[in-house]
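I am hoping you can look over what I have pasted underneath with an eye to the fold:
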Amino acid sequence: MSYAYADADGTAVRAFVAAGAQGLVSAGLAPGMTPPGEADALAAAVAAGVIVVQSTRAGSGVVPATTRLRERGILSADNLTPQKARILLALALTVSRDPADVAEMFATY
């Protein structure tokens, strides 16, 4: 899980990908926004085949499935906290590594 902060440059995201992560939850600023450097690293992770789910580190709220996320191939955690999104992603990856399947699981559960 990568927690966003002002001027985050994506170093943590790149390290997770280099370590072989199959999935990654980004805990962004409300409502699921990330700084440009981290956003680029997340898009690169998706391009490398990592399933990325965007959540928010705010106490509550929905991460809308915006055009920005869809264009980058990043899934929305909807209203799940980063911790809950991480658990669902871990479980989802035991069933499928197809982003469409994982997105359906996030929409269902």
Remarks:
- The mean pLDDT is 95.
- The beta strands are 2-3, 23-28, 51-56, 75-76.
- The first helix runs from residue 11 to 18.
- The radius of gyration is 12 Å.
